[in-house]
Amino acid sequence: IDRVIFCIFLKADQDIYEELLQKYFHI
């Protein structure tokens, strides 16, 4: 269960990170 939650957290974190990159670098 912890591993599943961790994977979901990483996926959401990756989406946020990519969105921030697009805002900063206008990709």
Protein described:
With 27 residues, the protein is an all-alpha fold. The protein has one domain. The chain contains one helix and no strands. It is rod-shaped and about 35 Å long.
Outline of this structure?
The protein has 27 residues and is an all-alpha fold. The protein is built from 1 helix and no strands.
Descriptive labels:
mainly alpha, 1 helix
Question: How are the SSEs ordered, and which strands pair?
Answer:
Layout: H1 2-25
User: How would you spell out the order of helices and strands?
Assistant: H
Number of domains: 1
User: Could you tell me the number of beta strands?
Assistant: 0
Low-confidence stretches: none
From the helix content, strand content and strand pairing, which structural class follows?
mainly alpha
Shape field: rod-shaped
Radius of gyration: 12 Å
Average pLDDT for all residues: 83
Count of helical stretches: 1
The end-to-end span amounts to 35 Å
Largest sheet: none
Helix percent reads over 70%
Q: How much strand content do the residues show?
A: under 5%
Question: Regarding quaternary structure, how should these chains be classified?
Answer: single chain
